Amino acid sequence: MLDTTSNILIKLAALVWYTGIVVLIAKSGALFLEALKGGADQLFILMAILCGIVIGKIKAKYLFYNIGKKNIDRINLLTNPKLWQFYRKRFFIFLFLMIALGKYLSGVAYGENMALIALAVLELSIAFALVLSSHCFWKK
If 35 and its partner were Cys, which of 58, 93, 100, 113 is the partner (CB 3.0–4.6 Å)? Predict the structure, then answer.
């Protein structure tokens, strides 16, 4: 029951990856806009966005691509893949904790422009790293 193929698991893993991209870009954009409404300098925000992109590029090259590739290799080694095995249990626990931490930090940062911008840079860098490393799902 709930047997599947490695290809389906890889597509599900990619779906989670791409969902993270959309959510993090939307959230970082909202945080940047909130800081702008709070009186943050527009040039400073543009520099922060550039910084997030550069950090994301580094994260993609040295961390995220390897994480994605390692997960794909693990999936391909499964002898009897089950639908829930597109990520390990610890990944889902980690993801839940990161979502909760992000929500908490957003609340703490509210009204503090520097904190909003720092959190937005962090989230943008992760989103950009996910974008740049996502090609691991489509390589044969």
Answer: 113
**Alpha helix (H) ranges present in the chain?**
6-37, 42-59, 65-77, 89-109, 113-133
Q: What is the pLDDT of residues 80-96, one digit of tens each?
A: 999 999 999 999 999 99
- Domain with 93, as residue range(s), is 46-140
User: For 5-29, how does the pLDDT look when each residue is reduced to its tens digit (9 = 90+)?
Assistant: 999 999 999 999 999 999 999 999 9
Q: Are 17 and 137 in contact (CB under 8 A)?
A: yes
**138: pLDDT strictly greater than 90:** no
> Contact, 48 vs 113, CB < 8 A?
no
Angle at 78 between CA 77 and CA 84, to 5 degrees: 135
Is residue 32 in some structural domain?
no
The number of folded domains in the chain is 1
Indicate the Cα dihedral angle 33, 128, 23, 49, nearest 10°. -10
Query: What is the value of pTM for the model shown?
Result: 0.93
